[in-house]
Specification:
Layout (H helix, E strand, L loop, with lengths): L6 H15 L11 E5 L4 E2 L4 E2 L13 H9 L2 E5 L1 H12 L8 E6 L3 E7 L2 E2 L30 H5 L1 H14 L4 H5 L9 H9 L3 H25 L3 E5 L3 H4 L3 H8 L13 E3 L6 H10 L4
Parallel strand pairs: 1-4, 5-8, 8-9
Antiparallel strand pairs: 2-3, 5-6, 6-7
Helix pairs in contact: 3-11, 5-7, 5-8, 7-8, 8-10
Bound molecules: zinc ion (ZN).
Zinc ion binds next to α4.
Length: about 290
């Protein structure tokens, strides 16, 4: 993705990506719609990119309108998590459910809400930022400027950071060996491996992570009572052994009388979640 230059260069980058899928020789009539997962904040209702920190040249940029003008087809734009949530609800782990809460846990935590089969956007399209629900107002500073967001506590980045702190205090952990003796090089991937090897520091880090995710999802259940919760993203495979434990912790942690009736499942789409999401946006009625 282009990160410097003018708005037209950004548009060119998108057109180049489309050109790779639809070379000039292909029949343009085969293209019925364009779906784009773009970095927020954006307004999916108008297709305007507002002011993404990593794409400063797209300030209040009408990307959908520009693309519509260039290709003459319907264009849908949304953020990655909303689009991936829709793909999971249509074709993936949330298929068959009307109300889906989706969370992608990776370097950050993104979420999407599918309400009655459609993306819930809120008033201006800024809804469903569940990764920035705070669970500790005195917690670590989040990239968004608030403190104690679940993203700042339980994302892959946060898991790595908490592990680095603990390894500095407990040099006997095998995590230190994995990081070639430098606590600052410990990553969340190493935590997963060390946990599998029964390392006490990694076990403690994962216990805390499970605690916080269970508490956060308990809040989500009390707010939305979804039919299913789908977890995707790079850290989701690391969480796979803990899904049942998280569900058990909801009992007594939710006001909801039957939280254990809500399935907590892994997403179908992994690295291809963005592609599936963009395709889902194109489907009629989405
Ligand atoms: Zn935040």
């Amino acid at each position: 993705m282009v990160t410097t230059g003018h708005a037209s260069n950004g548009l060119k980058a998108v057109s180049t990506a489309i050109g790779a899928l639809f070379p000039a020789s292909a029949n343009q009539q085969d293209m019925s719609a364009i779906g784009i997962c773009a970095p927020g904040p954006l307004n999916p209702l108008t297709g305007v990119i507002i002011n993404p920190p990593n794409l400063p040249f797209w300030h209040n940029y009408p990307l959908a309108e520009e693309m519509r003008r260039a290709y003459g087809v319907s264009v849908k734009i949304d953020n990655d998590a909303n689009a991936a949530a829709l793909a999971e609800a249509k074709w993936g782990a949330g298929r068959g459910y009307r109300n889906v809460f989706y969370a992608t846990i990776g370097t950050g935590i993104g979420t999407g809400i599918i309400f009655d089969g459609r993306i819930y956007h809120g008033r201006t399209g800024a809804a469903a930022e569940g990764g920035h629900i705070g669970i500790d107002r005195n917690g670590p500073l989040c990239n968004c400027g608030k403190r104690g967001c679940i993203e700042a506590l339980a994302s892959g980045t946060a898991i790595g950071r908490r592990a680095r702190q603990k390894v500095s205090e407990d040099p006997k952990s095998i995590l230190l060996e994995m990081a070639d003796g430098d606590p600052q090089r410990v990553t969340s991937e190493m935590v997963a491996k060390a946990h599998a090897a029964n390392d006490p520091v990694a076990r403690e880090v994962m216990r805390e992570t499970v605690d916080m995710l269970a508490y956060w999802l308990g809040n989500v259940i009390d707010l939305l009572e979804p039919d299913v919760i789908v977890i995707g993203g790079g850290v989701s495979s690391m969480m796979a052994p803990f899904l049942e434990e998280i569900r058990q912790r909801w009992v007594g942690a939710c006001l909801n009388p039957s939280p254990q009736d809500i399935p907590l499942v892994l997403a179908r789409y992994g690295e291809d979640a963005g592609i599936a999401g963009a395709a889902a946006l194109c489907e009629l009625g989405s």
